[in-house]
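Worked example

This section walks through a single chain of length 265. The input is the sequence exactly as stored; nothing has been trimmed or padded.
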Amino acid sequence: MSIFFIELIGTGILVAFGLGVTSGVVLRGTRLTGNGWLVIALGWGLAYSLALLSVYPFGVAHLNPALTIGLASIGQVFWSDVFMYVSGQLIGGMCGAIVVYLQFLPHWRITADPQRKLNAFVTLPMVKNIPANLLTEVIGTFSFVFGILVIWATVEANEIKFLLIAFLVMGIALSFGSTASFALNPARDLGPRIVHYLFPIPGKGSSQWKYFWIPIVGPLLGGIFGALFYQSFYLGAFSFSIWMMFILLIGLVSWALYIEFRTGR
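Given that input, the structure is written out below as tokens.
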């Protein structure tokens, strides 16, 4: 099976199961309605594990443009293959979101709040501070990519790797995800956001395109930084790029602090 279809199927499974849990919690009239963040964290962790296991007979899937581009930045993926990975992931994210749209078809109608309908598809910040929201995605995705690379390098049994990745995602969700819903993955947010925009969801409101770039840029920066950090400090292969990332992150942190202190006055 080609890279494109491995990523499409794997990411579709990931998003269908992950958004399925999120939708069950935020939409009205389901068995999960009103359950908290812990259920969502558990659901997304299991979704990653199941998606990886489902396509593993055909190859090791990335399921995430941030991981793909992070690996390419340290030479573990050919840049010429990146488009095939990322296009499969984005289309897979859309397909998974369509499955969730159909699964909860009557619940869109009985859920009055358009914000809840949007939350079923995309990530949004609890408190809006653009650089801080961006930093949240960088921190979470850095942890995700660095954690996956360490797991893959130190654990031999693939089944254990997938289980540990599930725990990694749960841990990130609980530690870093409660402020902006932890995208970690541009395809997980952009694909479903497109579906929310295009599909006839009753009373859905805005798809909030002003925010869409945060769950793309933040995870990509975090993924590259996580991969470079692994290469530099775990493998001992320092490069000029890691120092450039440190400078960029110092700038982002300074921006976030400036906005927060200015707002707090």
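What to look for: The chain has a mean pLDDT of 94.
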